[in-house]
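[step 3/7] fold_predict: job queued, chain A
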Amino acid sequence: QLPIEQLASVPRAEQHPIAMAQDLARRCGAADEAFFREAMASPAAAETERESRRRLSYGTAGFRREGSTLIGVAFRCGMLAAVRSIALQGRATGLVVTASHNPVEDNGVKLVDGDGGMLHMSWEKHAEAIVSAQNAVDLEQVVLRILAKEEVNLMGGERAGTVLLALDTRPTGPRLVSAAMAGIRAAGAAVVGSEDTLRTTPQLHWQVLATNAGGPCEEKDYYDKLNRACSSLLLGRDAAVSSLVVDCANGVGALKLPSVLPAVTASGTAVTLANTGGGTLNSLCGADFVQKERRLPMCVGALAGGQLGASFDGDADRIVFFVGGSESGGSDLDLLDGDKILCLLAGHLKRCVEGLGGSFGPVAFGCIQTAYANGSSTRYLEQGLGLEVVKTKTGVKHLHAAALAFDLSVYFEANGHGTVLFSPDFLRRLREAKGSGSEWAGHLLEISNVVNPAIGDALSMLLLVLAILSHEAGGLDTWRGLYADAPSRMLKCVVPDRSAIKTTNAEQRMTQPAALQAKVDDLVAGAELARAFVRPSGTEDVVRIYAEARTQEQADQLATSIEREVAAFFS
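[step 4/7] structure written:
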């Protein structure tokens, strides 16, 4: 067994895999020590930064907090993205610097796995371990443990990793990308991208997927694919929307949206962009603001009949729509959120599947929601359309995983994050049917070319909704009238330890504390058409409360009563 210092002189074919793992860990440790020595202004600042990483958790959104405090996190995440790529035998992974719908002063680091999806859940603990390591020696041990647990074989030069990078428009982004690049190179992987690689988050997910599939994978290829498919879907159709106003949240979506609009404008829809960067990111605008506040975004006036509004979030992975509010509704908009988008897509896709005919064979078609989906939307899907609805835990990674069990599936969270998935076998069958002359199969294949199969994508979903509306009788009026939302209220209660609450049944019931669940059951039983649940937040020490009832007054009262019971339990 040679000392590590002599390993470099030994031909690669003769190197021992354990020694190679030790070499990689040592190089990571040395680079880590040098990075933090240069990046931190003083030993005191370094100590504060180390402590701040000790209890970070990796959620659906990755690591997220105030942007200037993420330098060390970005460096270590770059290292992990490289190790993940090496573990995948050289398949590319991705790293995007964004905080999505959060305020502009926040930022985050999100990792993209080799299939273009979110970081595999089994690697989230690795991310937390590598980020929280308190010094270079600890880091070396973490890297060795990851390599051993995942049985990563470093033999063979073809296993060198590649990491694709991107960022949104936040001012702290370029410095964080620089730190991530240093971490990637420390682990011996190649970097694709730079501090100037502005992309939406879904674009980077798509690019990782396309890179590993061996097909066209540049930004231009992404636009070309969307434009070709959208043009085909809109060919010969009358525009269902005369005027479209898109609130870009002063984010990166404003830079990218014009490149996918040619087919939309050619079909007769006039498009106006608002909040394109002159204001503050996500401030009084964006999908999160519109969905939660039920208010028009800034710089968008009241909509007339035939007009449709849409709002992206800061990194354009969410989208919600809205139309002008009815006089009796007491609001300046009627929201068409993720639940309404899911119902529109599901209805159209169901008709397409029926159009394939019995000779095509059975198609497993499912709709995936979380407990936060409005009860009226679930009833419409199950009773109105006769479709199977699966409920999962909150978080897109859970919905995506459940959707993979079907030939064809649609998943959405109410916040506007979702997509349509086609299984490889279903796509194969559609191509065969198209070759035999099936127009329905060709139509479904074009839909598959518009959607982003890796993640929710505001750009592609905007195009798909407009295309489907042009194929559906009644257009906007029919869509907004599919069902009436059940009145609901969401609250959160700050608690000392959210881990005291354990849930089951897609977070809709508490297993612990049983006494608190019994209180919730009693309160629900006392209201009309009511349901409610209590779940711990995945990112902060708060408990989230959701309640529905026949009237808004009853929903408000139910949520407030449950909040009092939660507070009493923790007191």
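[step 5/7] annotate
The chain has a mean pLDDT of 93.
The two ends are 60 Å apart (CA to CA).
exit 0
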